[in-house]
């Protein structure tokens, strides 16, 4: 008995002596509130990390301060390149500057980072403007639009609407964009400036041509962070989050190097630092190079699995279908084949199958999560077809497939 007690006591003392993390919130973006995120970012801007992008934003919006009306702005860049935070930071600053000059400006952030139908996107916008409560149904798209317009009927200043991840509107996307681009500006007295961000460079190609021709837009591209940027970002995070002296030499450089080589995504780089710190805590050591390697391989598996485990059943079924259709290899299949495989998966698991079009939406969603890769191929006069490839390491696919079958109640 005494033995167990002293073992626990000494383990806890060991953990306390070897604490690694000082403030966990700075390692987990989900736990940082916006103002703290912006605070972290401010230090980074002072270190000139998103200098080019900030300069471009400034020159785009400078006319506002002269009482002019700049056109809309499209911001492209891969995930984790700081689009959301940089734009929010900039717009807050712009609003402050305008206040000093007595220019009326208002900005709202419509965050579509999880995909949703047009109805919900409009409902969210109406909520931001105080024009509606969150509703599920019983109200038409038209009614929502009218309420949005009514809430802006008396505002004559500049209205910057930051539509974040605008390509995530799943159903009636054209209705949504037509409303923002053609109808809203005509119905309200204020000067509307849209800031549209997306991960996909090809996004405007999917727009209704009539909307596209109306959309006067400037483009700004966020490049992936390079190793030097990431070192600065991670360095500041490590200072805030970790206890001093806990990082082995070269760890930050290594994480920055790995992250810049693979994706240039600051979110993933911070996650890798967090995982390494967690492993170090568990092992009761400092954060070593070897732990970083271990963290890399654990993160790969965790990410995809936890994403799918909590995903809606239809999305899980679509993923299972692609794995079955490609035999879990990196071979390519067409949408038709994948859809057949999806229908048979649905039959086996008692899930009502969705239409081919809705299945296409699910594929898009899997693509945004990087679980699959889809590519449109032109087949000349036979039209266009979409090709699907699985783009994951084999061991990850096997585990995903097991998890999905298990979730769907299939025998092993
Ligand atoms: N310059 C930076 N300094 C510190 N942290 C940063 C910086 N840029 C990005 N990050 C971190 O990476 C995360 C992702 O940034 P952000 O949300 O702005 O990226 P994004 O380009 O909008 O990505 P997505 O396309 O996935 O929305 C942020 O939560 C932040 O913690
Ligand atoms: Mg974003």
Helical coverage, percent range = 40-55%
Largest sheet properties: 5 strands, parallel
CATH topology of the largest domain: Rossmann fold
End-to-end C-alpha gap: 42 Å
Mean pLDDT: 89
Percent of sequence in beta strands: 5-15%
CATH superfamily of the largest domain: P-loop containing nucleotide triphosphate hydrolases
Name the quaternary structure.
single chain
Radius of gyration: 24 Å
| Helix and strand pattern | HHHEHEHHEHEHEHHHHHEHHEEH
What is the total domain count? 3
CATH architecture of the largest domain: 3-Layer(aba) Sandwich
* CATH class bucket of the largest domain: Alpha Beta
Low-confidence stretches: none
Bound molecules: adenosine-5'-triphosphate, magnesium ion
Keywords:
binds adenosine-5'-triphosphate; single chain; 5-stranded parallel β-sheet; 412 residues; 3-stranded antiparallel β-sheet; alpha/beta; 8 strands; Rossmann fold; Arc Repressor Mutant, subunit A; binds magnesium ion; Helicase, Ruva Protein, domain 3
Can you walk through the features of this model?
By secondary structure, the chain is α/β, with parallel strands linked by helices. The protein is built from 16 helices and eight strands. It has a five-stranded parallel beta sheet with strand order 2-3-4-1-5, sandwiched between helices. A three-stranded antiparallel beta sheet has the order 6-8-7. The longest helix has 21 residues, at 289-309. The chain is globular and about 75 Å long. The structure holds adenosine-5'-triphosphate and magnesium ion (MG). Adenosine-5'-triphosphate is lined by residues 29, 37, 40-41, 44, 49-50, 77, 79-85, 113, 199, 233, 266-267, 270.
């Amino acid at each position: 008995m005494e033995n167990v007690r002293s073992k626990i006591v000494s383990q806890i003392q060991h953990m306390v002596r070897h604490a690694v993390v000082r403030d966990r919130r700075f390692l987990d973006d989900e736990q940082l509130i916006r103002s703290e995120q912006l605070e972290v970012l401010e230090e980074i801007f002072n270190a000139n990390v998103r200098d080019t992008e900030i300069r471009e934003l400034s020159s785009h919006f400078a006319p506002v301060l002269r009482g002019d009306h700049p056109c809309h702005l499209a911001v492209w860049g891969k995930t984790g390149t700081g689009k959301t935070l940089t734009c929010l930071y900039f717009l807050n600053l712009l609003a402050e500057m305008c206040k000093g000059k007595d220019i009326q400006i208002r900005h709202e952030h419509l965050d579509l980072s999880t995909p949703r139908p047009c109805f919900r996107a409009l409902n969210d916008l109406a909520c931001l403007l105080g024009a509606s409560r969150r509703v599920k149904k019983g109200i038409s798209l038209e009614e929502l639009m009218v309420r949005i317009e009514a809430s802006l009927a008396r505002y004559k200043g500049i209205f910057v609407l930051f539509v974040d991840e605008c390509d995530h509107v799943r159903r009636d996307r054209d209705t949504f964009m037509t409303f923002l681009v053609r109808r809203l500006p005509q119905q309200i007295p204020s000067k509307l400036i849209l800031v549209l961000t997306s991960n996909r460079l090809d996004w405007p190609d999917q727009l209704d041509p009539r909307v596209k021709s109306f959309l006067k837009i400037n483009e700004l591209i966020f490049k992936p962070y390079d190793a030097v940027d990431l070192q600065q970002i991670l360095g500041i995070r490590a200072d805030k989050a970790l206890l001093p002296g806990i990082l082995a030499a070269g760890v930050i450089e290594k994480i920055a190097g790995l992250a810049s080589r693979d994706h240039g995504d600051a979110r993933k780089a911070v996650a890798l630092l967090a995982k390494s710190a967690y492993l170090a805590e568990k092992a009761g050591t400092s954060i070593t190079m070897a732990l970083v390697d271990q963290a890399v391989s654990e993160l790969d598996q965790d990410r995809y699995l936890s994403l799918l485990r909590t995903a809606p059943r239809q999305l899980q079924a679509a993923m299972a279908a692609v794995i079955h259709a490609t035999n879990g290899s990196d071979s390519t299949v067409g949408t038709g084949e994948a859809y057949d495989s999806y229908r048979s998966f649905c039959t086996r698991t008692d899930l009502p199958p969705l239409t081919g079009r809705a299945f296409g939406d699910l594929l898009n969603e899997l693509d945004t999560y990087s679980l699959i890769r889809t590519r449109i191929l032109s087949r000349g006069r036979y039209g266009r077809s979409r090709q699907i490839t699985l783009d994951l390491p084999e061991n990850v696919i096997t585990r995903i497939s097991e998890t999905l079958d298990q979730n769907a109640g299939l025998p092993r």
